[in-house]
Amino acid sequence: MEENYKLEKEYTIPIDVFREAYTSFQKQFICPKHNLFMGIFCVIAVVFIGIAVNNTSNYLPYVGALACLAFAAREWYNPKKMRRSICDSVRELGEPVYKIGVADGFFDISTVSDDKVKPENDEDEIEPLPEKTRIQRSDEYQLLEYDKYFLILPDRASLYVLPKKNFTDAELELIRN
Fold it and tell me: Considering the entire predicted model, what is its pTM?
């Protein structure tokens, strides 16, 4: 099927741009919830410590305070662990070449080539490249622009990073619109 694209271009995503983009995504969508829970656990820990100071014969408030502080530390650490894990996975992919097609009501993003090492013998199967992804401009769709990249968020569960580095000003304006 022949698509009527206004723009069709190939690009790669450097790992430092991906890390920065994913950090921006986390700051806007993931960290507020974690920060809220971290604050709640810290307040509960302070309440337990207040109870423990007034009642020195009971050790249970100390245990509760330590548990709440451990939960707060977990809420602080989990986004960092998730970012490191995802960035490591992307780093293992190398820098595959992607292709974006911009049309009136949608984006098409596909993987053109994969720079992974080819299998050494014929017994290893080559995994086929994933099919192109069509991102409709709908109510849930968001396009966030930063200095070095665009974040394309088709829904709350996925994101696509589009680095600005290899695009001209006219092409960037077409993506914005």
Answer: 0.79
Any residues with CB less than 8 A from the CB of 24 and at least 6 apart, and which? Answer: 144, 146, 151
Q: How many helices (H) and strands (E) does the chain have?
A: 4, 7
Contact 1, 101 (CB under 8 A): no
* d(C-alpha 114, C-alpha 93), whole Å: 8
The per-residue pLDDT for range 38-93, each reduced to its tens digit, is: 999 999 999 999 999 988 888 899 999 999 999 999 999 999 999 999 999 989 98
Please provide the distance, in angstroms rounded to a whole number, between the alpha carbons at the two ends of the chain.
24
Buried b (16+ CB within 10 A) or exposed e, 112-135: eebeeeeeeeeeeeeeeeeebeeb
DSSP letter for 71, please: H
